[in-house]
Amino acid sequence: MARKYSKSASKDVERAVKKEKKGKLRSGPGGKGGKVKSRKQAIAIGLSEARAKGKKVPKKAKSKKRKGGKKKKKK
After folding, report:
1. Predicted local distance difference test score (pLDDT) of residue 69
2. What is the C-alpha to C-alpha distance for residues 9 and 24, in angstroms, rounded to an integer?
3. Closest CA to 11 of 56, 46, 63
4. Is 35 helix (H, G, I), strand (E, B) or coil?
5. Helices (H) and strands (E) in the chain — how many of each?
6. Of 67, 62, 16, the residue nearest 39 (C-alpha)
7. Do the beta carbons of residue 44 and residue 17 sit within 8 Å?
8. Helices in the chain by DSSP H: which ranges?
9. Cα torsion angle, 24, 51, 40, 34, sign
10. What Rg value do the Cα atoms of the chain yield, rounded?
11. 18, 7, 15: which is closest to 56 by C-alpha?
12. Exposed, middle or buried: residue 45 (CB in 10 Å: 0-12, 13-18, 19+)?
């Protein structure tokens, strides 16, 4: 079975998580946002950086929309 992520992409994620642990990772374009507070956010930043560099990373998961809107409860 082939790898979903390249080794270099996982290194980018690892680098981002380590930066977050030190308190140096910031969100937003060019790191102009606030400090990253969660591990999940750090992983997402690492993956998006790897995507920008053109490394082997799966596409972002798209949110699934419901067609009928809200379902009403039967009384």
Report:
1. 65
2. 20
3. 46
4. strand
5. 2, 0
6. 16
7. no
8. 7-22, 39-52
9. positive
10. 17
11. 7
12. buried
Provide the residue count of the chain: 75
pTM: 0.71
Q: Token digits for 16? A: 């981002």
The SS3 call for residue 26 is: strand
The pLDDT tens digits of the residues spanning 6-63 come to 999 999 999 999 999 999 999 888 888 889 999 999 999 999 999 999 999 888 878 7
* SS3 of residue 71 by DSSP: coil
> Which residues face 24 on adjacent strands?
none
Residue 7, phi-psi category: left (phi > 0), alpha (psi -120 to 50), beta (remainder): alpha
Question: Is residue 34 within 8 Å of 45, Cβ to Cβ?
Answer: no
